[in-house]
Amino acid sequence: MSTLARIAVENTVYHFDKLFTYLVPEELYKTVRPGVRVTVPFGAGSRERVGMVFDLDGQEGEGIKTVLSVLDREPVLDREGLGLALWMKNRYYCTLFEAVKLMIPAGLHFRLKDSYVLSAGFTDFDRENYDGLSWQIIMALRSHGRAMPMEKLSAALGITRDCPEFKALQAGGVVCRVNLAMNRVKDAVSKMVRPIPGFDGRLTPRQREVYGVLCDVGEVSEKELCYFTGASPAVVKALCEKGAAEVFQYEIYRRPEALAAEEDNDDLILSESQQKALEELTEEYENAREGSRCALLYGVTGSGKTSVYLKLIDHVLAKGRGVIVMVPEISLTPQTLRRFQSRFGDQVAVFHSGLSLGERMDEWRRVRQGRARIAVGTRSAVFAPVQKLGLIVIDEEQEHTYKSEASPRYDAREVARYRCARSDAFCLLSSATPSVETFHMAREGRFRFHKLEDRFGRAVMPEVQLVDMNWEDHPGSEHAVGMALGEALIENFRRGKQSIVLLNRRGYHTFASCRSCREVVSCPNCSISLTYHTANRRFMCHYCGYSAPLMKKCPSCGSEGLAFRGLGTQKAEEQLRELLPKARILRMDTDSMSGRYSLERSLHEFARGEYDVMVGTQMVAKGLDFENVTLVGVISADQTLYSDDFRSGERTFDLLTQVVGRAGRGRLPGRAVIQTFAPENPVLGLAAKQDYFGFAERELAYRKAMLYPPFVDLLVIGFVGGDEKLTRRSAERFLQELEGLARGEYAGLPLRVLRPSPAAIARVSGKYRYKLIIKCQNGPRFREMIARLLTAFAGLREFRQVTVYADPNPNRII
Ligand code: ADP
Ligand code: ZN
Ligand code: ZN
Fold first, then answer.
1. Could you tell me which residue ranges the Helicase ATP-binding domain spans (predicted)?
2. How far is Cα 643 from Cα 377, in angstroms, rounded to an integer?
3. For the chain, does the N or the C end have fewer beta carbons within 10 angstroms?
């Protein structure tokens, strides 16, 4: 019988994180097992913290502490999950518990808040029936109303969990510990809260705690947030006032199942090329144990890649194994999601941040217990506890959403491959525009490669026209729609067909600048211009959440001559209305689509022909499948082309190919008009020809010449601090230490380090940001060196005010 356990503890810092050894007291022998959560005393003050038991092992040592309690009756992680957490720590420089938290639903985590309520049926408020303390407890809970955390009870009454009166009340059914099964919050939620990331102002401990929870879960209803954290709405209000969170409305908030379609795919018959791909994939799936565990399914837009993996999933399920399907963003792919749900019904569990916490827990449980065998969802779905995992499908594998930009900075594609390797499962990457990294691997023979080169049925690829906007009548004016696109839109409307117009700008983009001093109205905390939102008539910063009401005077010189520039979706919509006064126009952007299901509803209406034109940001570019859309227009293709990032060419090509691919998917041929000021740019030319292979060859040649992935790995070390000089010095010091190790103990590692430089947006939320770019080969020795550097660096007193993090293969170089 082992009496020791090794445990990962919550809220540790990276440089101090490891498995800590604890003594298991005799009464917990039976319940302390790998994969269950416990509470342990931690640190100098021995404060109670949550931990995850990794194994029953460890070294007896001096001052060893004892496990306090066990939180789970059944393990919430299995051996595979625990192994994955260890792998993630090594790979992404996070703490073990951060990795653990990704794998268990947030709701499960909060239950740990030791909170109590009076039992629902309790009515016996007769003072005479209780001793003094018991009565005080009852009154405290009653006046508190909601779940009352133990710490509050202790503070109010000086009791602990083990106090006999308190225990007796629980045994007598008067008081119960809040647990989800008994008191699920489930209603048509409307008031939602989301955090403003990177908030750095002053918060009370309570507010900070709730803010931390918000950052963990993303969007959540206020009700649920209060319920799970035991906070009152006043705390939420205070967070909003301080700019740490914001409240927004969901128009409707329904279970995704309610949206399941009538359609049924029972008689799905594959085309010849689909069938061929399926047969090859099925064979590879069967041989995954010996052969390559990974394959790429390249298929032009509209070729029916989804049909192929629906059939492959049939096969995998028939063999008694489970499936994960990852999609880039749930709101972009309601149609795909519906196809899964109508084909596999209850077998499908959904994972994404639009679900309430309770729903997330339900779905997680259904998968863990094997009741649902297919998990469909966004990035985090890669952690779904699918039993007997057989297949992971990654749809549109090039999408940047698969890489997390907050700690743990994991890449779901890598996690997927790791899980497949551990479970003898098969990983299928699918795309019309695979990332050149993936294409490279497939070409080198490390992945199998399958192609669907024609659209399904009789649909043909659209004809694409590049329009040189330099020759338009009023060049440089802010007229969105040029002549050629204007004519095409009028013609298409006349024929009763639908059009999609993409405004290739991120988000909403109107800024103001001063006519006299030429200053752009900028965020006081960040080195970035503020964006004007007509919806709430405020200037807003997309980085720190700062906002200011519409001003008349220039904040720099005080003169009254602010000019608004840039083209937002609203302006584009206005211009389209002038052009097509009779057309019904649907605007799609984050302003007009505040809730996921309002987006979903709009898409339904568009599909039913209630609109003629859809205009919007990136949101309209991907995944949509409407057979009546025969024209796609792109207003300025150049926007993504000139961001100074090595992936900008790839992103532009991807976006254009995808949006062009929305046209002519049905019986009628489609066309696309792309406006540009750089018609000679080869990326645009290749996108217009929809020549993926030409593009990939060219891009790979460039990456090779410039030494970028896939020819090297990148690691960006980020430095964030309030003092600019200190932040820069910390980056220089890191470089120095790195060079020392690279010349000494780690000599021989292939490595190229660029000099420290300010981040592209050098100041965010009042903090300065520097970066260090390392081109390397991301192997075990390299990671060991970086882990050592990060750990040592955290120990330097001089740089205590600077936060350092490491981001492997980031989406963009910050
Ligand atoms: P992709 O994801 O490759 O762009 P989709 O999977 O969206 O393509 O398929 C394009 C269209 O063709 C969809 O409307 C889909 O329903 C239809 N389709 C594809 N394959 C089949 C099939 N085997 N039988 C019937 N319809 C199909
Ligand atoms: Zn001015
Ligand atoms: Zn800002």
1. 286-452
2. 30
3. N
Please list the alpha-helical segments (H only) found in 104-131. 106-110
Q: Is residue 544 part of an annotated ligand binding site?
A: yes
176 is in an annotated binding site: no
Ligand closest to 516 (CA) is: 2
Inter-helix orientation angle 305-318/272-286, to 10°: 40
pLDDT at 69 over 80: yes
Tell me how far the alpha carbon of residue 45 lies from the centroid of ligand 3, in angstroms. Answer: 37
Are 713 and 804 in contact by the 8 Å Cβ rule? The answer is no
The residue to which tokens 């995992």 are assigned: 389
Find the ligand nearest to 520 CA. Answer: 2
Distances (CA, A) of 620 to 434, 590, 616, 624: 20, 11, 6, 7
Specify the DSSP class assigned to residue 650.
Answer: H
Q: Per the annotation, does 523 bind a ligand?
A: yes
Cβ neighbours of 148 (radius 10 Å)? 23
| CA proximity to 515, closest of 562, 553, 551, 477 | 562
Ligand 1 atom nearest residue 274's Cα: 23
| Residue range 766-785, pLDDT digits in tens | 899 999 999 999 999 999 99
Alpha-carbon span 663 to 620, nearest angstrom = 12
Ligand 1 atom at minimum distance from 661 CA: 4
> How far, in Å, CA of 689 to CA of 510, rounded?
32
Tokens of 792: 């040592």
Q: Residue 511 above 80 pLDDT?
A: no
- In sequence order, what are the residues at sequence separation of 6 or more whose Cβ sits closer than 8 angstroms to the Cβ of residue 222? 191, 192, 193, 233, 236, 247
Asked if residue 94 belongs to a known ligand binding site, the reply is no
> How many C-beta neighbours within 10 Å does residue 158 have?
10
Pick the ligand that lies closest to the CA of residue 766: 3
Q: What is the pLDDT of residues 737-760, one digit of tens each?
A: 999 999 999 999 999 999 999 988
Which CA distances in Å does 783 have to 18, 377, 417, 714? 16, 30, 19, 12
Report the residue count for the chain: 814
Interhelix angle 569-579/483-494, rounded to 10 degrees, is 60
- Specify the 3-state DSSP secondary structure of 39: strand
Atom of ligand 1 nearest to the CA of 303: 3
Which pLDDT belongs to residue 253?
33
The predicted-structure confidence for 526-558, as pLDDT tens digits, reads as follows: 877 887 776 667 787 777 777 788 888 888 898
Nearest CA to ligand 1 atom 6: 304
Place of tokens 């399907």: 325
- Residue 305 CA, closest ligand 1 atom number: 3
810 Cα distance to chain centroid: 14
Structure tokens, 611:
């609109």
DSSP-assigned beta bridge partners for residue 430? 297, 395
Choose which residue among 453, 625, 627 to substitute to test ligand 1 binding: the one with the highest number of ligand atoms within 8 A of its C-beta. 625
Alpha-carbon gap, residue 586 to 597, rounded angstroms = 15
